[in-house]
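Encode chain A's predicted structure.
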Amino acid sequence: MSKVVNVASTAFFALACAAVNAADSACDRACLIGVADTYLAAIAAHDPSKAPLSEHVAFVENIKKTPVGQGIWAAAAGKATAFKIYVPDPVAGQIGLMTVIDRRTPSGVVPAQLAVRLKVVDGKIVEAEHIVADVTNKEAVARLAAPRPNMLAIVPEQDRERGQLATIAGSYYDALDDSDGRLAPFAEDCQREENGLITAGPNLPPASPDTVDVHGNKPPPLARDCFGQMSSRRFAYVDTIDNRRVFAVDPVQGLAMGLSHFRQSMKLGPQLLIAADGSHVMWEEKRDPYDLPAAHIFKITHGQIHEVEAIGIFVPYDSPTGWEK
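Encoded structure for chain A:
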C-alpha cells in the first residue's frame, strides 16, 4: 500500500510549473554551471559577496534555515575537489550538484560530501540548499576521488526527453516507499552509492542487515541488486518519504536530481522481508527513531536507472524540513 501519493506525475508537474516561471531566464547550461562554480569558489573563500546572491536569498543547510556565511561557508577548509556532478536545468532555472570539500570540525579537518540546489532568477541565486555529510570511511574517501565516468557521459538524442527523465527519477521514491522494485525501471547494471559506499549493485552477494532483533537474531540474506533490494522489503520500516522534489533534469547527460526527507518512527512493528532465496520472514528493525534528509542524482539512459549517487544525513525524528512557512 502506498504511504505517499505517487511522486512521478508530481515531479513532472513541478518541473512544468518551474518551466513557466523560468521562461524568461537567459541562463543556459553553461551559465548555470558557471554560477555553480562561482558559488563553490565563494564558499572556499568564505566570502558570500563573491557569489551572485540575491539580496533576499533563502539559505537552508542540513534542513536548518541558516544565515549566509555560516555552515559550510564558515567551515570550508579548501576548494571543492575533482568530484563534481552537475545537473543544470535551464528550463527550471535551477542547478543541482554534488561535490566533496574539506570541512573544519572540532576534531580536525575531514572531507565532506556537499549536495547543493541553487535556484537562479535573472542571474541571481534566490534559493540555496545544502546537505553536508562528513566522510570518514577510507573506502568512501577513495571512491569519492572522482565521479563514476558514466555519470558524466553524454547520452544519445533519443534518451533526452525531459519529462520522461523526471518521471523515472520520481519513480525511484515510489519503489522505495512501497518496497516494490517493479515501480521503477532499474537496469540490470544499476548501482547505488550512498555517502561514498556501494549500497546496491549487480555484483553484491546477498547479505543480512547489520541490525538484530531483541533476541540477537539476524534476518536471512537479502538481495542487493537495485531491483531485488527494493522488492525484498528491506526498507519497509520507512514511514514516509516527505518533501520529495525532482528539481533539476539535464537531458544532455541523462541526469535528474532529487531531494527528500525520510521519516522512521520505528513504530511500524514487524514487517515482511523476502529473502534472496524467496523465503519469507517477519522482521522488526530495531534502532532509535530518526529522519534522513537525502539528495539523489540518477543516471538514466534507454529508459532505465543505471546509476544512483546519494548523500544522506541522520537527524532527530520528525525534524522540520527547513522550508516550512
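Residues 8-15+150-312 form a domain with the Nuclear Transport Factor 2; Chain: A, fold (CATH 3.10.450.50).
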